[in-house]
Amino acid sequence: MPLHHANRLLEAAGGIILGKERELRLALACLVARGHLLIEDVPGVGKTTLAHVLSRLMGLQFQRIQFTSDLLPADILGVSVFDRATGAFRFHPGPVFAQLILADEINRATPKTQSALLEAMEERQVTADGETFTLPEPFFVIATQNPAHQIGTFPLPESQLDRFLLRIQLGYPDRAAERALLMGEDRRTLLERQCAVITPAALLELQQAAHSVHVSAALIDYVQALLGATRNSPELVNGLSPRAGLGLIAVSRAWALIEGRDHVLPEDVQALFPHVAAHRLHLAGDGRPVPPATLARLMQAVALR
Questions:
Q1: Which of 175, 207, 239 is the last residue of a domain?
Q2: Number of structural domains, the chain?
Q3: pLDDT tens for residues 13-37?
Q4: Angle between helices 21-32 and 2-14 (to 10 degrees)
């Protein structure tokens, strides 16, 4: 049963990432929906650990890329080197050629370097010197981002943000979880002892099962109404793209599957909409990221129609 795989993974992850059950479910739903995940928060709350946990528990090939201001696109994608033996250039793949990529502190790199991931995230391939190289399957990017007000950060281009299916925030742990962290074993030591609880093949089974979750015509109408509301709102610069709508349906299917259902409910869409929309929308006038209150008003207006 695909649901058994999800429950095993969430139980194991919850033993390492304490007090973040909802955030773990969101992250898993994102991967089951074949999407990329953006985690934005202050340093030290477990963003990097979450990526390590997911890769270890799913048995995925993992690569971490530390984004800095001097990082170059070739440092991510790879480089062609002249081979004297053959008299031709030979492509040496970069760290992007792995099943799960942790793009750590992605907004500390320049927009030129950030854009190196665009083709990989959308088409799961890399083009170098006119030749196309297919990336491993499955392929996910989990990016961590520091708050924009911190020194040394660059804003992510809108085209880059639109390729992240979900954005989540971990936040500080509650008192009980923080006390367990302070008194317990180091999380890295726990992770080193942790074996995979599902295989990449089991993850593929989850993805296929999620694709079969039923979405009614009425629910499609509801999603379209939400998309239209963002495009017609005078509070927003631009509305959500069709890619965002497709992603909202896909991750709602994955969420319903993890919840043990074979159909999507409006509550699933409402729970996921803020995480799909917030990083894609900006306020008219000052261009600031859209606050949760604006999204709540928008959802309430659509729900009352």
A1: 207
A2: 2
A3: 888 888 889 999 999 999 999 999 9
A4: 140
Is 10 in the same domain as 95?
yes
Q: 31 with 203: CB under 8 angstroms?
A: yes
Q: Which helix (H) or strand (E) holds 92?
A: strand 88-93
8 A C-beta contact, residue 108 and residue 153 = yes
197 DSSP assignment: S
What CA–CA distance (Å, rounded) separates 3 from 11? 12
Give, for 128, the enclosing helix (H) or strand (E). strand 125-128
* Residue among 297, 161, 167, 305 at smallest CA distance from 241: 161
Pick from 149, 180, 207: which residue ends a domain? Answer: 207
Domain span at residue 79 reads: 1-207
Say whether the peptide bond before residue 2 is cis (omega within 30 degrees of 0): no
**According to the per-residue pLDDT averaged within each range, which of 33-37, 167-171, 289-293 is highest?**
33-37
Q: Name the more confident of 12 and 190.
A: 12
Domain co-membership, 202 together with 218? no
pTM, full prediction: 0.90
User: Residue for token digits 């502190």?
Assistant: 105
CA dihedral 203, 207, 212, 213 (to 10 degrees): 90
What SS3 class is residue 65? strand
Structure confidence at residue 152 as a pLDDT band (50, 70, 90): low
CA distance 91 to 237: 42
CA dist 58 and 205 (Å) reads: 12
The 10 Å Cβ neighbour count of residue 181 is 16
Taking every pair of Cα atoms in the chain, the longest distance, rounded to a whole number of angstroms, is 70
- pLDDT at position 164, please? 94
96 burial (CB, 10 Å; 0-12 / 13-18 / 19+) is: buried
